[in-house]
Amino acid sequence: MASAPNDVAAADLGRLFGAGTASGMTDRQLIDRLARKGGDRDEVDLALRAILDRHGSLVWGTCRQVLGNVPDAEDAFQATFLVLLRKAGSLSVSDSLGPWLHQVASRVSRRASSVRARDRARLAAAAGQPGSPGGDPAPATDRLLVLHGELDRLPDKYRMPLVLCHLQGKTHEEAARALRWPVGTLSGRLSRARSLLRSRLERRGWRSSGDIVGVLTPVCSRTIVPPDLVARAAGLTASFQAGLPAPLAIEGLTRGVLMTMLWNRCKGPAAALFTVVAMAGASSLSVRALGAGRAGGPSPDRPGPADAPVLVASAAPQTPSPGPQPEAARPDGVSNEDVTIAGSPAVVVRTVPEAGTGDVDPALKQIKVTFSKEMRDGNWSWVTISKPSFPEITGKIHYLDDHRTCVLPVKLEPGRTYAIWLNTTKFTNFKDRDRRPAVPYLLVFRTKA
């Protein structure tokens, strides 16, 4: 029994020396430790603690500025570092993790602020009050939310020097070294960044840029993170390595930001989005009924983030403008004078649930999509963007007697956002009776928690 305290002391001593070693590593080396598959838990824990020590003030200051409310800021702080743990394997930063962490902290915090605002509105509506109940953020917090939002939207070459110099308090030389830029380049971009941020903020109600640095620097570079909060954030490595979810509020914020990152990579014109989806390895449940309804198997799915924070509006490729166009630009050889409903491709006219709905009953057993024309029986392309965003299929896909409505039997989970393509540029088995592919359509909805 006498050896037990010695074992504990030896373990603590090992962590002490390990912490010293980790603190001397670059951000890139620490990220590599976090990303190491099957790595030792203590090693991952030490790497995360070193990052917390190095960048915790930046993240905590950002969360406090945007949210004001301490419990919400604590959840956002922990969610930021949980996002880091889950994204470590794909991060491309070199020795400048601070700007990336600020961007994540800003997005997580603004997400938490949005959730809190919806909760207040729901409580106010339930109580029959015209406005939201007490506890609204102070006007200063609203201004800071705008500031961090505009800072997040700056191009990287302007955002990163602002974060390093004004939020983390680095000198021009230190920031240039972290970004691997010449000092002159850093100084020029920093000056341009201040001017750009000032003009954007003035459009949002800020009167001058004189208070921007004064507001940012003291809070974000000198804020002391509560020790118990550091311990809780460091403790996330245990659940992360065990594949277990974090506490509900933190897990929801984390998954939300992860899917936001996915959508941000895919946003843009519909044609560009189709290209991104195809390159990312979007798999298809594109099937053609054979005999008793046996469907062809899907391609392997590309794993992705597990949930969506914000509903994405349904999308379809841009159609040509109604003005005169070259004959070759018209689909299916239809001339300007011969455009008819019968000669146009089928389009989605109705879905159950409706695209963009945020409170779908998870007990819903069927997803239905109705087209503008009669479709070929046994042909469909239900296409995944990522495995977690596609529902579990529980039965045979089929058309109703109207030959326009395709039914996908599913099992939905509470509190999850689903995203499904109906046809893409690559998978086009939703076809009308004349074998013309339907216009692609993105169906996105969220189930109630």
Automatic annotation (TrEMBL):
Low complexity biased stretches: 123-140
Residue ranges occupied by any SbsA Ig-like domain in the UniProt entry: 345-434
UniProt keyword Signal present: yes
Keywords: Sigma factor, Signal, Transcription, Transcription regulation
UniProt cross-references to InterPro entries, sorted A to Z: RNA_pol_sigma-70-like, RNA_pol_sigma-70_dom, RNA_pol_sigma70_r2, RNA_pol_sigma70_r4_t2, RNA_pol_sigma_r2, RNA_pol_sigma_r3/r4-like, SbsA_Ig, WH-like_DNA-bd_sf
Domain RNA polymerase sigma-70 region: 53-112
Segments passing through the bilayer: none
A Pfam family the protein falls into: Sigma70_r4_2
GO BP, sorted A to Z: DNA-templated transcription initiation
Domain RNA polymerase sigma factor 70 region 4 type: 147-196
KW NADP (keyword) present: no
Molecular-function GO terms, alphabetical: DNA binding; sigma factor activity
Chain positions covered by the region annotation Disordered: 121-141, 314-335
Family: Belongs to the sigma-70 factor family. ECF subfamily.
Protein name listed in UniProt: ECF RNA polymerase sigma factor SigW
Provenance organism: Aquisphaera giovannonii
